[in-house]
Specification:
Strand order of the largest sheet: 1-2-3
CATH architecture: 3-Layer(aba) Sandwich
Order of helices and strands: EHEHEHH
CATH topology: Rossmann fold
Strand content: 15-25%
Radius of gyration: 13 Å
CATH superfamily: Formyl transferase, N-terminal domain
Number of domains: 1
Helix content: 40-55%
Amino acid sequence: MALPRITVLTSGRGSNLAALLAAERHGELDGTIATVIGNRPGLPSLDVATAHGVPAVVVPHASYPEREAFDTALGELCEIVKARREGCAIERARPTNLLRELLEQR
């Protein structure tokens, strides 16, 4: 049976993400970290994800006029990621393109 694929939402240094990745590596997490979504470019947590080979994408909250619109975009992205059994393929140099590409595939 395949492990559940987990999408992690992050907005900071990545200490919690690093702990989750360590738990996964040691077989203590009943799932696999499949995608990391950050709310600002340049977050250290995105570097943590990349260093562990986990696809990372930025959904900049400042691009949305209100919190509800941002939350909707996150929810849509999570559903797209969930529906794609092969996970996300991203261009590391331009992570915000992933959101656009995934939304166009809907």
